[in-house]
Amino acid sequence: MSLHQREIGGQAKVKPDAEHPAEFVLLSSGTAAWDGILLEHLKFPPLDISDVCAVRHHLTLQLKTPRKVELKANGKFNCQQLLPGNVCITPFQHLHAIRWEDEMEVLSLTLEPEFVAQTIQESVNADRVELMMH
User: Fold this and answer.
1) Taking the mean position of all CA atoms in its chain, how far away is CA 81?
2) Residue 70 domain-assigned?
3) Is residue 50 situated within a structural domain?
4) Is 56 among the domain residues?
5) Which runs of E-coded beta strand occur in 55-124?
């Protein structure tokens, strides 16, 4: 997912049409020669990410402290408590929204859809594999 930030009422508002702003990235594999894979350590301020369609597969690992988030899937928001070690999976082309009110630190693994498709095709019957929101 890509982000642009602007302040609205004390919270950062996010637009889904740019890369993670540099101020969110603590560490990144972006300069490594990893074709189709990006690993980032991110620290986000309070955010409200409105309905956005994922342009890549994302696996996000919650770090440090528990955080309350509101996740919109299938048209409605659900409140969830993310504990350190919890993993959120957002598949390519999944429409979703998420918001939280406290600073959040995560480890983000981003996978290009072509990389995932090629890897699956090379290792198993691709028709039997589906990445689902979790």
Assistant:
1) 16
2) yes
3) yes
4) yes
5) 57-62, 67-73, 76-82, 87-90, 95-100, 104-111
Q: What amino acid is encoded at 92 in this protein?
A: F
Q: Residue 68 is part of which domain span?
A: 4-128
Cβ atoms of 115 and 57 within 8 Å: the answer is no
Q: How many domains does the chain have?
A: 1
Contact 1, 19 (CB under 8 A): no
Q: Are 3 and 15 in contact (CB under 8 A)?
A: yes
41-60 pLDDT, tens digit per residue, is 999 999 998 888 889 999 99
Q: What angle do CA 16, 133, 115 make, to 5 degrees?
A: 75
Q: What is the model's pTM?
A: 0.74
CATH code assigned at 90 = 2.60.120.10
Q: What percent of the chain has pLDDT over 70?
A: 81
Are 49 and 18 in contact, with CB atoms under 8 Å apart?
A: no
17-26, 55-64, 85-94: least confident range:
17-26
